[in-house]
């Protein structure tokens, strides 16, 4: 067993929604094990458990302590890991479950969006060598200095899977989903979206940064830097997959690959002489309130005010906005907006922003701002136009 290839599979919450689905996942894992693989399964919390735990926290406390919130949220994955492991035992396949800290996932000390600093999978290796399937709780780790439990940010189990695959030098990291793989748009919004069978890391990373909920953005960067072969596939379906590659054949086609969207973008305005002072005040405010940095999208300083455009998961954004009510120098600037992004292969063509703005205009949608990155055109629009904008821009593919 010691020299058999290792495969890491990650199962999202949707794949584990019912007891029957949990048994089906276990049966797929047992099958891989029978075929001679050493198998590590990373599991997320069942269905919408994490959302329900967040809701529960706020029913008990209007300002949940960030450490305790992490303690609470990590229980979701603990439920999944033990159930999958039990189902494997029933199939006669030896298995054991571990939390993130038992599996050696070492993070920094930031609650709610900790980053993985190191993975020391000593117990995982021992159990694999014993012939067991190892089932790991995704989305969580431990800070080695403080011994505190942390979470990696919403959707973070994908990053656990890639980090573990890198540390174990796995043959492959497979992300198992309810969709076939990465599509040209969210298939729940655009019914005729197409599966992207091959995708380069750079394009995928842009898509995820700009809101594609199909993968945790940080896992794409990690897979690229650690050289982890990454595949996305549907639960139970093997033929249709997205393979993520270093290079996809083609030159500067500028072909539009996908339309994705960030549902909620918020703006903070900070009284400040320049951008540096604006950021200093923002950093101090986050620290004083025990909050982690949101994902920043753009910022500018004019007329004595720094404006920061940002996103994060809804709970973190709400927590940040609530703290602004007590602040003298920081305030919420405007109502929430959304983004729609066109991600291109081989770089954005110069006229694409204009084309995209025209398509939106034709559908009665006025873009508020355009932010460019090497592979994406990103338009900021009113939140109520989000779905219509995604459907309209999909016509450019
Ligand atoms: N470009 C995209 N391609 C595929 N899925 C997308 C895309 N953008 C958003 N999604 C959404 O991402 C979700 C990912 O799959 P799912 O298995 O439901 O998630 P999880 O693994 O987190 O439980 C789908 O519900 C799909 O609607
Ligand atoms: N359960 C966590 C972590 C996670 O990765 O979930 P999923 O893989 O189901 O998106 C969340 O809901 O954020």
TrEMBL record:
Keyword list, A-Z: Amino-acid biosynthesis, ATP-binding, Kinase, Lysine biosynthesis, Nucleotide-binding, Transferase
EC nos: 2.7.2.4
Pathway per the UniProt entry: Amino-acid biosynthesis; L-threonine biosynthesis; L-threonine from L-aspartate: step 1/5; Amino-acid biosynthesis; L-lysine biosynthesis via DAP pathway; (S)-tetrahydrodipicolinate from L-aspartate: step 1/4; Amino-acid biosynthesis; L-methionine biosynthesis via de novo pathway; L-homoserine from L-aspartate: step 1/3
NCBIfam families: asp_kinases
Organism in which the protein naturally occurs: Bradyrhizobium japonicum
Span of domain Aspartate/glutamate/uridylate kinase: 6-232
Entry similarity comment: Belongs to the aspartokinase family.
Transmembrane segments: none
UniProt catalytic activity: L-aspartate + ATP = 4-phospho-L-aspartate + ADP
Annotated protein name in UniProt: Aspartokinase
Record-level Gene Ontology MF annotations: aspartate kinase activity
């Amino acid at each position: 067993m010691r020299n058999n290839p290792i495969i890491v599979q990650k199962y999202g919450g949707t794949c584990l929604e019912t007891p029957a689905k949990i048994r089906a996942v276990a049966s797929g894992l047992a099958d891989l094990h029978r075929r001679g693989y050493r198998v590590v399964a990373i599991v997320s919390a069942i269905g919408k458990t994490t959302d329900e735990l967040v809701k529960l926290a706020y029913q008990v406390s209007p300002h949940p302590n960030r450490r305790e919130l992490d303690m609470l949220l990590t229980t979701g994955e603990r439920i999944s890991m033990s159930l999958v492991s039990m189902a494997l035992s029933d199939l006669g396949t030896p298995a054991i479950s571990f939390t993130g800290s038992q599996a050696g996932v070492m993070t920094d000390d930031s609650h709610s969006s900790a980053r993985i600093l190191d993975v020391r999978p000593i117990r995982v290796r021992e159990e694999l060598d014993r012939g067991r399937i190892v089932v790991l709780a995704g989305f969580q780790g431990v800070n080695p200095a403080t011994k505190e439990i942390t979470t990696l940010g919403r959707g973070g189990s994908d990053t656990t899977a890639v980090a573990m695959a890198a540390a174990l030098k796995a043959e492959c990291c497979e992300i198992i989903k309810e969709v076939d793989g990465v599509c040209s748009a969210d298939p729940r919004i655009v019914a005729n979206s197409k599966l992207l069978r091959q995708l380069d890391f750079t394009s995928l990373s842009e898509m995820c940064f700009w809101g594609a909920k199909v993968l945790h953005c940080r896992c794409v960067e990690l897979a690229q830097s650690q050289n982890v072969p990454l595949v996305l596939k549907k639960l139970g379906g093997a033929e249709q997959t997205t393979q993520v590659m270093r290079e996809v054949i083609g030159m500067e086609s500028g072909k539009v690959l996908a339309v994705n969207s960030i549902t909620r973008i918020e703006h903070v305005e900070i009284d400040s002489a320049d951008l540096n002072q604006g950021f200093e005040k923002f950093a101090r405010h986050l620290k004083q309130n025990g909050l982690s940095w949101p994902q920043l999208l753009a910022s500018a300083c004019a007329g004595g005010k720094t404006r920061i455009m940002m996103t994060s998961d809804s709970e973190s954004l709400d927590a940040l906005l609530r703290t602004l009510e007590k602040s003298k120098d920081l305030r919420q600037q405007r109502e929430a907006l959304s983004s729609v992004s066109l991600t291109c292969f081989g770089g954005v063509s110069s006229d694409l922003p204009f084309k995209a703005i025209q398509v939106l205009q034709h559908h009665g949608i006025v873009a508020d701002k355009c932010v460019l990155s090497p592979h994406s055109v990103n338009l900021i629009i009113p939140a109520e136009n989000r779905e219509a904008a995604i459907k309209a821009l999909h016509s450019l593919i």
